[in-house]
Amino acid sequence: IGDNLPEGIEGLHFHNLCESSSYDLEKVLEAVENKFGKYLKQVKWLNMGGGHLMTREGYDTDHLIRLLKNFKDRYPNLEIILEPGSAFAWETGVLVSTVVDIVENHHVKTAILDVSFACHMPDCLEMPYKPRIRGAYHEPVFEKPTYRMGGNSCLSGDFIGEWSFDEPLAIGDKIIFEDMIHYTIVKTTMFNGIPHPSIALWTKDDKLEIYREFGYEDYKNRMS
Question: Are 172 and 95 spatial neighbours (Cβ–Cβ below 8 Å)?
Answer without folding.
Answer: no
